[in-house]
Amino acid sequence: MLKEYKSIADVSGPLMIIDDVKGVGYSELVEIKLQNGETRIGEVLEVQEDKAVVQIYGGGSGINLRDTRVRFQGHPLEFGVSLDIIGRTFDGLGHVIDGGPAPIPDQSRDINGMAINPMAREYPDEFIQTGISTIDHMNSLVRGQKLPIFSGAGLPHKELAAQIARQATVLNDHEKFAVVFAAMGVTYEDAQYFINSFKETGAIDRSVMFINLADDPSIERLATPKVALTAAEYLAYEKDMHVLVILTDMTNYCEALREVSAARREVPGRRGYPGYLYTNLSTLYERAGRIKGCKGSVTQLPILTMPEDDITHPIPDLTGYITEGQIILDRDLDHRGIQPPIDVLPSLSRLKDDGTGEGKTREDHADTMNQLFAAYAKGKEARELAVVLGESALSDADKCYLKFADAFEKEYVNQGFDTNRTIFETLDLAWKLLTLLPKSELTRINDKYIDKYYPKTDETED
What's the predicted TM-score (pTM) here? Predict the structure, then answer.
């Protein structure tokens, strides 16, 4: 039998302290009945002897300590899952907000999830196509990977997130694919952009959306990624689907975590964030992966804005330690109108070599990627040299690389937010760009691939 308490000792921001409790557990769901009949929910953060600290979803404003009643539910916060959640839009706590009826759940699952046993993990080695050349070719995403996107204030990560959600797919058409999209702390305008983008392109039919608005209580942001990942795990491990989870913006999530930590009067760590920020982020990121014996997979693309474009800031810094690489958006490319402004040189996917090649993408994938990377790096060096000494001081080889770098950015990187390229179209474009260099410079490509894929022109035929 559930016990009801009226022994609230204090309310501070989103936290409530309750005295004289018995049999209360960590992460237990709490129902809070206000004096005016309003009901809010909370979660137990800490239990010490007969005192419980409760985190209130919805904030602590308007609570009368004497007349408010609290009931502990005996289980953690749960989300009802079924295949009917696909195509639906929910708020940050998992309540339907698209105007339709609530889906009938097959089961209710604890949003905190379970850590994947490392011995049960299957190594990620299967390609996911996003339709974006700089990701698919240069920094390939594989099933079960967690590959964050590092952005900055004002950069078009919103458009990039929507593009990936619309276009992402697996190459084998017979395999079931879904997208779980979670937006945290976004404006109403941004939320409508995501919803309209998904509906107009039909992507909503294979997506599950979770929207936490900027004016929602920030404490709800802490539950949003957990609810989204709970939905993804059900679709992947129960229904054998390949699920891509896009989480934007993780910076807003971390700010909410800092707010709760400050309310609990905890000793702050770097930049005021709690010392357990790394551990907390790992509980989200490590829910991606493939499990032996399961056909499905959970792949994560967390998106975060780096405060002041500082990659050493605790959020991107700790994210980089946990995840397998990063995609970096560049402000200079954005100022020059190149969209999406992905800088391939500092970007990295640590698992790209395992998910590409013959039988997965195409045999020339790795060689052309390495050649493009090296040529673009030399082209950028030539561009910097031309700024200092003038273009006339460049050698003929430097001028070729400079011309290549310009073409690479304008034709390869600058594909816009509406162009969906297959990996094979991207590889063909790469070979076209490599014709700007003398064949003698293609030192990173196997000769058999040059003979097979190098575009035939009048000059090469002669």
Answer: 0.91
